[in-house]
Amino acid sequence: MLAGKRILLIIGGGIAAYKSLEVIRLLRRQGAAVRCILTEAGSRFVTPLSVAGLSGERVFEDLFSLTDEAEMGHIRLSREADLVVVAPATANLIARMAQGRADDLAATALLATDKPVLLAPAMNVRMWHHPATQENLARVIARGTRTVGPVEGSMACGEYGIGRLAEPPDIVDAVIAALTSGKPLAGRRALVTAGPTLEAIDPIRFISNRSSGKQGYAIAAALAEAGAATTLVSGPTAIPAPAGVNTVRVEAATDMMAACNNALPADIAVFTAAVADWRVDSASNQKIKKSDGAGPPQLHLVENPDILRTIATLPKGRPTLVIGFAAETQDVIAHARAKLARKACDWVVANDVAPASGVLGGDENTVHLVSATGEETWPKLAKQEVARRLVERMARHFGKGQQ
């Protein structure tokens, strides 16, 4: 399946580096040629001899090797590949990528490459959760870098959580998707909503919710990467616009409804936004002042438009695939099934957003994909990985001729 494809594999430091040997073996079984850069830290966990023996190629380690630079050079090494894979991608490597560093052969090759890059992160759960890591990862993803994993599980250090390297077969599947599928959603138009809405009470106060928008932004980025012409309609967030995505920023639910209508027609519509159910009928143009003894102001609320149901029940121009999100705190799958019927959408992606879950504002998600044919539960994954899997599912949906 990968016959004739050339992979440059960068092996970072960390106990998960031993899995890179299996990645090499599986890639070669698929017919790929694999060249490897072994970082200094990576060589503490796997040897150059092991890597060379499995890859059938010499191993590159030193940026200042006169022989390597004369025969290959870091520029040619990074550009003669069809895909650059970093496995494991440590927190340090991701940070250096985000900063544009070129202080060793691996970082220099990543900075010099003009080919797609696939990261397979692996690190301690606390390092993964650290804001610096998440900011660095968001920065490299915004530049078009793909990711696979990490996944949840036991760590070598004895801790448990998300941060384990994706299993080698999953990494190879991601390589195949990157190299053989091309742009599986090319020619498709996609609409994604994300974030909260903000419903004004007066110029100072408003009604809103805790949605961060991270999952919706990740889905929009993954759709664009898969070739779809993607419009992201976003409520107020602090997240930079994804690369290659037409981002429309709004505040209120009525503005979001109007922007969604403007984004039609579309083949795919994914509604992750946490739209406020209610808004103040007539927001005050001036700050509402507290009057001693007068009590709290009486606010008259009216219902906001149901954006998901409105789009899903369009008599003409309905998107082929309409996907809703169900953020629940109990009976997640039962509520998702009810929403699937009530909103007339095709799929519902349901998740538990109870405070203990850490989903709202967090970087991971555990979702249940519910459709008319059944449901499946995915393991706890980084939100970028949830997005990638969901978009792969969309591509398979359209690939089966379900137009």
Offer a quick outline of the entry.
This protein has 403 residues and is α/β, with parallel strands linked by helices. It contains 14 helices and 22 strands.
CATH superfamily grouping of the largest domain: CoaB-like
Secondary-structure class: alpha/beta
What are the low-pLDDT stretches, counting only 5+ consecutive residues below 50?
none
Query: What's the overall geometry?
Result: elongated
What is the fold named in CATH at topology level of the largest domain?
A: Rossmann fold
What do the pLDDT scores average to? 87
Counted by DSSP, the helix tally is 14
Q: Assembly type of the shown chains?
A: single chain
Query: Major sheet: size, sense and barrel closure?
Result: 8 strands, mixed
Domain module tally: 2
The CATH architecture of the largest domain would be 3-Layer(aba) Sandwich
The Rg value, from CA coordinates, equals: 23 Å
Indicate the CATH class of the largest domain: Alpha Beta
What spatial order of strands do you see in the largest sheet?
13-12-9-14-17-18-20-21
